[in-house]
Amino acid sequence: MFTVEQRDALRESVLTLAEKDRRVVAGAAVGSLAVGGGDRFSDLDLTFAVADDVLLAEVLDDWSRTLSDEMAAVHLVDLERGPTIYRVFLLPDALQLDLSLTPAARFAAASPRFRLLFGETAEGEPADGRKPPAGGDLFGWGVVYGLHARACIERGRVWQAEHYIGAVRDHALSLACLRRGLPAVQARGYDDLPADSLASFNGTHVESLEPERLHSALSAAMRALLDEGKEANVPSADTVAERLAELR
What's 53-75 look like in SS3? Predict the structure, then answer.
């Protein structure tokens, strides 16, 4: 396991790399460490603005070679969201680096967990174009996954059913977070939900792949989803609850 000192050293190395690269015009810390949060297990998240006349991929590939050659970084995965490219690296001792690049004209805070380190941000949309999930969408997809879960149980597709039941639970939990002003993505707000809210999710975990157990977990997950939909004032919640009474 990496140490805080290793993470701090990586941060300084990446910032030095950025400051020496004339193509990079601004940089910021993002994630839990940007605002004084995080702990010794937090990974390192850094984001940078690249001059508008430069290709992001060009800078990212150059940096990837340097990180690989000098720090033994392994490239894990890329994600493109709006104008931003994210690249995730794994370094020795399981230290994760999340690096993202955005054209300077679109470089801005995508969440409150953003601390500018040098340069300037641009006005306008968030750098990655993300918006909070809509309650109606969370509810709707949860219902879709519930229907898929029921069909999978009946077909004997028990592992697929388990997956979909978990998706119903996750969408209900995300709804609970959304209406309380907690982060509603990637399970970030789950542990901050009130105890009485979390208690309503008792029974939503699949204890075994026996059909009865799957049906029981699905029923509990759907009850939680439908209740959260009503609490969130999703317009279709009552109608959907009537039509899916057999799944509750």
Answer: CCCHHHHHHHHHHHHHHHHCCEE
CATH architecture of structural domain 135-247: Up-down Bundle (1.20)
Nearest to 244 by CA among 228, 230, 223, 229: 223
Pairing verdict, β 24-30 and 84-91: unpaired
Q: What's the token pair of residue 233?
A: 């004032």
What is the tens place of the pLDDT at every residue in 159-218? 999 999 999 999 999 999 999 999 888 888 999 999 999 999 999 999 999 999 999 999
Angstrom distance (rounded) from CA 42 to CA 129: 24
Closest C-alpha among 202, 174, 208 to residue 190: 174
Q: What is d(CA 13, CA 18) in angstroms, rounded to the nearest whole number?
A: 9
The tens digit of pLDDT for each residue in 16-40 reads 999 999 999 999 999 888 887 778 9
Q: Is 19 helix (H, G, I), strand (E, B) or coil?
A: helix
* Three-state SS at 47: strand
Match 């690096």 to its residue by tokens.
99
User: What is the topology classification, in CATH, of domain 4-118?
Assistant: Beta Polymerase; domain 2 (3.30.460)
Task: Please give the Cα distance from 141 to 55 (Å, whole number).
Answer: 36
Dihedral-angle region of residue 222 (phi above 0 means left; psi in -120 to 50 means alpha; beta otherwise): alpha
Beta partners for residue 99, in sequence order: 46, 87
d(CA 122, CA 82): 15
Task: Report domain extents, the chain.
Answer: 4-118, 135-247
Judge whether 179 and 135 are in contact, CB under 8 Å.
Answer: yes
Residue closest to 100 by CA, chosen among 185, 16, 14, 183: 14
